[in-house]
Amino acid sequence: MRTQVAIIGAGPAGLLLSHLLAQGGVASVVLETRSEEYVAARIRAGILEHSSVELLEKAGLGDRIRTEGDHHRGIYLQWPGERHHLDFVNLAGRSVWVYGQTEVQKDLIAARRAGGQEIHYEVSDVAVHDDHVTFTDASGQSHRLDADAIAGCDGSFGPSRNAVAAAEKYEKIYPYSWLGILADVAPSTDELIYAWHPDGFALHSMRSATVSRLYLQVPNGTDPQSWSDDRIWEALATRLGHGQNGWKLTPGPITDKSVLPMRSYVQTPMRQGNLFLAGDAAHIVPPTGAKGLNLAIADVALLSKALIDKIKNRDPRKADSYSDDAQRRVWRCTHFSWWMTTMLHTSGDPFDAQLQLSQLKWVANSEAGATGLAENYAGLPIGY
Ligand SMILES: Cc1cc2nc3c(=O)[nH]c(=O)nc-3n(C[C@H](O)[C@H](O)[C@H](O)COP(=O)(O)OP(=O)(O)OC[C@H]3O[C@@H](n4cnc5c(N)ncnc54)[C@H](O)[C@@H]3O)c2cc1C
């Protein structure tokens, strides 16, 4: 088999890359270990930055975001007794959209299907070589796929990141995880609530007008089944301030319960020869800053242009600077995600708790502090 770009992974990074390449006249083949149904149903991120929405709209993928997504001007930051609204539009001139990763994935699958994209689902034994990829298809047949470039969009467990032999790796493991639930109940808030509490962090997020997504800080290694539904709602009510200034948290049937460990990871460079990494294959952020999906989109925005120039126009300059260009934003988002995480999660140390509260009060009450958070959360322009 032969194509111009072999893309490993049909997550948001891989499918968006194949879409943008096709729009630029470059052919690709996508390889994915999971089934299409599994990939489309994975529950993960839910916030799209301003630039991500602009890019998806420009690529013809914005219709459902406008009709089914929820436009948010900002977030609430809270600690016991106080809740503050940060208005990103007033502070930074940018906003975010609540639109689940599952929906982004469905839009991408529909667009790629309409475009006749070649995607091989349920492949195995994927191995990256200098100028080709080998794999076994769903029927058990072995293949060799030759390509001008290989895009490693296979997340944190795929083979691409380890194929970059001389990579420098930076990693931080956090001493806590998130217990996340999906609940069939209308959100009790119009915008996300990020809550610091002595019992641990809590986040009230949402997926739609009828589905809420909420998280609790829990110790690493927590078994989600060890938390009954009642216990979860009680902890959420306490940490999110049920009764504070008349605010009420409305519980509802929990349809999904999972524990998400938190880590930061950056690998550099994001290129070796013909292999280019994008998205979670090159970096992982804790979800507190809502950056994982947006970083994947930003990487692919740069990589698609770089590969179109390299393959179609025989101009390698953007491909040569891709890793450095992408890493500027990667490290900015890595810092922001670490900062949000360490400001909001309790460690049990009373000194740390006082510093966190001081930081939160400064962010909420100073225009400079609030603007810094707003600019990073709503997201810097692609190419920053
Ligand atoms: C469990 C979980 C929960 C998350 N929750 C949040 C959240 O609440 N908020 C937030 O902002 N972010 C969250 N994230 C992060 C966000 O979802 C990711 O940053 C985003 O999915 C990155 O997209 P990607 O395409 O780079 O990687 P992925 O979405 O991981 O896609 C990689 C694809 O490669 C495939 N693959 C793996 N190995 C191979 C192989 N050998 N061959 C071929 N294909 C392969 C995988 O099956 C997958 O489809 C979460 C991530 C995870 C894993």
From TrEMBL:
Pfam families: FAD_binding_3. Keywords: FAD, Flavoprotein. It comes from the Bacteria. InterPro entries: FAD-bd, FAD/NAD-bd_sf, RIFMO-like. GO terms for molecular function: FAD binding; oxidoreductase activity, acting on paired donors, with incorporation or reduction of molecular oxygen, NAD(P)H as one donor, and incorporation of one atom of oxygen. Residues 2-337 form the FAD-binding domain. NCBIfam families: PRK08243.1 (NF006091). This is FAD-binding domain-containing protein.
